[in-house]
Design a protein that fits this description.
The chain has 726 residues and is mainly α. It has four domains: 1-165, no CATH class; 168-372, Methane Monooxygenase Hydroxylase, Chain G, domain 1; 390-527, no CATH class; 541-725, no CATH class. The protein has 28 helices and no strands. Helix 2 packs across helix 7 (141-165). It is globular. The chain starts with a helix and ends with a helix.
């Protein structure tokens, strides 16, 4: 029964989720123009408009309404200009090739402005490649460009209208997804307490899940902090999103703020009733979060909590007391109890917000929300700063231009070249700045094309009815635009099947020949992209790794400084702490992503894999112990510091600053952005007392742990920097 219920909830999460909503929206904007135009005998005009809708969809990624709107209109203008240019020079192969190479280079350089600008660059490249055929030559270049652009405008108006009609929906969906990832993070961490766990493998899973949590947190921040309606709105739904997200981040911090010697915990308490209750309660919390996420996604209110918080806490408390009664001192279990109690306290607040209770008595946690959003600099200086071979973006742009030139030349010698732009399209879609991402995308596209083609072919052979084929085509189109952004291999599978069936309606070509040509073009394009990422100006993770490591250590320093400052004189605002916490989580996720990409590269390029893996684990422990200090401060408003505390705090900051300097002059070295870093001296007044609070010893113990980790940072950083000098 629970399995059936979980399956039902997963299915409903998918139905209510952002991916399917995006798929439905995109499919409608693509299919409506041909249907309407077909009624008036102008089917081909409708199909051409659909091309514009497909292009416009590429820039429609979740984000602030104003930013989405601006990029929509910029993309529509560029679609018109590029379509007109392409159709004008289509019969001049040399001029067309030169224009293509130049356009590909410039479009890839837009990556310096971020992900949305990178998507805009893809729109520009695809606008050219998808017009490099004679399908619309019955129109003049101007008319063809106008029709395609009208499709882009149609998609823009449709998408923006939905956003205006349902201003909170995107934030709700991404908040629910973020909560699901936090739930999964808790489940993985729970397994560290189980006797048969593989600790190293579990920690790797934990770090990988943390990357996903961070990505979703960034997205929710953008959607929430830039939406004045949400931050300042007095409506119930707007306020609930704001407060729930704030508490969800606090829950995630509580989970990450504790790092234990799990092997020792399992050895000493693995067979006890208390640890079984810890596992039980943590799994219940994870389940509760997934249930709440489902209700947020479905825009419903939960009827009740999935379990009795107080009752489960009391069970754990009694189990721990039994160990004390037996003469043991399970301090670590007591710490876990306090953490779980704090998480349940936050969960109870989330339930109150779901029922619209208690808002008036609580301070808005996002009143300084604009400070949490990183402003993008769109100046030309950013482009100029990257016009050198040290820049991975410049190398990728140059590589893409060379590869597209080669692919363009090959397209003239293929025996089947009518749809040879598919090969160019494959190159553009697969070729990414890093080798590992290119390899992964290549495998996904080839696999999706092969199996999608077989499915499409099977339907064409089994079903002769055009109505049935049309029904399948609509379904495949919906699934393609649902999964393309989230699960590329599955999206490509549905897209290939959809293309096959659509060609059986709008083209005189045999569908078997179409899929054969598409598969050959995909193989050739994928092979060219894959090889080029290895031999043409390759960018390996080890080459830029030190920049990521230094950024991570700088974020660690700023986070630790804020915590020590708070510990010393209480002169730190909540906003300052949360900003430092946000930065350290982002950099922690970034360095974990670097490790994931590094281990996907060829073996001879993985020189730093073991060291980087250790660094990510050290960094996870560092953030956990640092956050643990904050928990102590929240429990006690006044904390007594001894001279030993002060000495070790200063020593830790100095050692971390020295470690950062090992990576060089970061003010001029870092090509992505200028980082201003000044060593901050914490002024501490030494306080002596004979009666130290119990937490004083715990604080000293945690600062010692932090200092040990920083010392590990120093040792491993010497390995990175010394090898770099060789």
């Amino acid at each position: 029964m629970p399995v059936i219920q979980d399956f039902k909830k997963n299915a409903e999460n998918f139905i209510y989720g952002e991916a399917l909503a995006d798929g439905i929206k995109t499919s409608l904007t693509i299919i409506i123009p041909p249907l309407v135009a077909g009624l008036f005998g102008h089917l081909f005009i409708g199909v051409t408009m659909s091309l514009g809708a497909i292009l416009s969809h590429m820039t429609d990624t979740p984000g602030p309404f104003k930013e989405r709107r601006n990029f929509f209109w910029i993309s529509a203008l560029l679609i018109f200009m590029v379509s007109f240019l392409t159709k004008t020079v289509n019969h001049f192969p040399y001029l067309l090739g030169a224009s293509l190479v130049l356009l590909v280079f410039c479009s890839n350089m837009l990556t310096v402005y971020g992900q949305r600008a990178s998507a805009l660059g893809m729109v520009v490249m695809m606008s050219m490649v998808m017009n490099m055929n004679t399908l619309r030559d019955s129109f003049s270049p101007l008319i063809s460009a106008v029709i395609i652009t009208s499709g882009a405008v149609w998609y823009t108006l449709f998408s923006l209208a939905i956003s205006k009609f349902r201003p909170y929906r995107l934030a709700q969906q991404n908040l629910a997804e973020c909560m699901l990832h936090v739930s999964e993070y808790i489940r993985i961490k729970t397994s560290l307490f189980e006797m048969d766990t593989e600790e190293e493998e579990t920690i790797t899973k934990l770090l990988n899940e943390q990357v996903l949590v961070n990505e979703k947190q960034i997205m929710v921040r953008e959607l929430v902090f830039t939406n004045k309606k949400l931050v300042k709105d007095t409506t119930k739904i707007g306020r609930s999103i704001v407060f729930i997200f704030s508490d969800l981040v606090d829950i995630f911090e509580n989970v990450t703020a504790n790092h234990y010697d799990y092997e020792k915990v399992r050895e000493e308490y693995g067979s006890t009733k208390a640890i079984r209750q810890v596992i039980r309660l943590m799994n219940k919390i994870a389940h509760e979060l997934s249930v709440i996420a489902y209700h947020i996604n479905a825009n419903k209110r939960p009827k009740h909590r999935s379990f009795d918080y107080d009752k489960e806490l009391e069970k754990l408390n009694l189990a721990i007391k039994e160990l004390y009664d037996e003469g043991q001192k399970p301090l670590v279990l007591s710490k876990i109890y306090v953490t779980l109690k704090q998480i349940l306290y936050k969960l109870s607040f989330i339930h109150r917000f779901l029922y619209d209770e208690g808002f008036d008595k609580i301070h808005n946690p996002l009143e300084h929300g604009d400070r949490f959003i990183q402003k993008t600099d769109y100046s030309l200086k950013k482009i100029k700063d990257h016009l050198n071979l040290k820049s991975p973006i410049f190398r990728h742009a140059l590589r893409s231009a060379i590869v597209i030139f080669v692919a363009y030349g090959i397209s003239f010698i293929l025996p089947m070249s009518y749809h040879s732009y598919w090969m160019l399209m494959t190159v553009l879609v697969i070729l990414k700045p890093g080798f590992s991402v290119t390899k992964k995308r290549n495998f996904q596209r080839v696999k999706g094309t092969l199996f999608g083609g077989l499915i499409g072919l099977a339907i064409l052979l089994l079903f002769k009815s055009e109505s049935i084929r049309f029904g399948f085509m609509l379904f495949f189109m919906l699934m393609a635009y649902t999964f393309l952004r989230h699960k590329y291999a599955i999206g490509t599978l549905y897209l290939t099947a959809y293309i096959m069936l659509s060609f059986s309606f709008i083209s005189q070509f045999d569908s078997v020949e179409v899929i054969q040509e598409r598969f050959i073009d995909t193989l050739i394009g994928g092979f060219i992209a894959f090889i080029s990422s290895y031999i043409i100006l390759p960018t390996w993770e080890k080459e830029n790794m030190n920049d990521y490591l230094q950024k991570t250590l700088i974020a660690d320093y700023e986070f630790l400084y804020v915590i020590f400052k708070k510990l010393a004189d209480n002169d730190v605002t909540t906003t300052q702490y949360k900003l430092a916490r946000k930065d350290v989580y982002i950099e922690m996720a970034n360095v974990t992503s670097v490790f994931q990409r590094l281990i996907s590269e060829p073996k001879d390029k993985q020189q730093f894999a073991n060291e980087l893996n250790r660094f990510t684990i050290f960094n996870h422990s560092f953030v956990s112990y640092s956050s643990g200090l904050v928990k102590i401060m929240k429990k006690n408003n006044s904390v007594i510091l001894t001279s030993e505390h002060i000495r070790l705090m200063k020593k830790s900051l100095q050692l971390l600053a020295q470690t950062i300097r090992l990576y060089g002059d970061f003010e001029t070295k870092n090509t992505l952005k200028t980082i201003e870093f000044q060593e901050k001296a914490v002024i501490l007044s030494e306080m002596k007392t004979e009666n130290l609070q119990d937490d004083s010893e715990l604080i000293l113990e945690m600062i010692e742990y932090i200092h040990e980790i920083i010392y590990d940072f120093m040792k491993i950083s010497h390995v990175f920097t010394d090898r770099k000098k060789e």
